[in-house]
Structure formats: C-alpha cells, structure tokens
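Hypothesis: this fold can be encoded by more than one sequence.
Test: take the structure tokens below, design a sequence, compare later.
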C-alpha cells in the first residue's frame, strides 16, 4: 500500500505532467520547458518528461539541449523508439546549425 506522502508525490507528478502536456498543446514552449525541468528535478528518471523537454527545447531552437534531453531518454529507456527517432532528428537539426 502506498503511503500518504507517496500518494501526494504521485498526484503532484500527474498534475505536473498534465500541465506540461497542456502547455505543449498550446505551443507555450518556454513554460513547458520549465514545467518539465521541474518534473525531472523531482523525478530524475521520468522518461516522458525528458522526451517532452526535448520537444519543447527543439521548438525553441535549443538543439544542443534538446539532443541532451533525448539522449537521456534513450539512456533511461533504450527501447523507446520515439526518443530514438527524436534523437536522430535532433542530430540532423544540430548538424544543419553547426
């Protein structure tokens, strides 16, 4: 059985995740970056937050940081095909900018 503190933490993560997704759907990328970084700070192995962070950073033209976020996603979940695809795309975008 989950403790009260554990339930609170899970609820906060769920709320932050919903907020991050909503911000992305509204193309509020800077805010999405902030929320996803907050999720990662509290939950450093939250794969989806790294993936969302990578997308938001890409949308803001921060390709090196996006690549790092996607890379961390793949480190945490090597079978994550979305992250692998995004990492490949960010590599191509980064090379175009270099």
């Amino acid at each position: 059985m989950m403790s009260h503190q554990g339930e609170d933490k899970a609820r906060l993560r769920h709320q932050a995740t919903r907020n991050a997704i909503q911000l992305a759907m509204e193309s509020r990328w800077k805010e999405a970056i902030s929320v996803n970084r907050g999720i990662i700070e509290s939950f450093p192995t939250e794969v989806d937050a790294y993936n969302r962070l990578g997308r938001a950073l890409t949308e803001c033209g921060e390709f090196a940081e996006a690549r790092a976020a996607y890379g961390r996603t793949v480190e945490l979940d090597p079978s994550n095909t979305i992250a692998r695809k995004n990492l490949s795309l960010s590599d191509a975008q980064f090379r175009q900018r270099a």
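The mean pLDDT is 90. Residues 4-25 form the longest helix (22 residues).
Hypothesis status: open.
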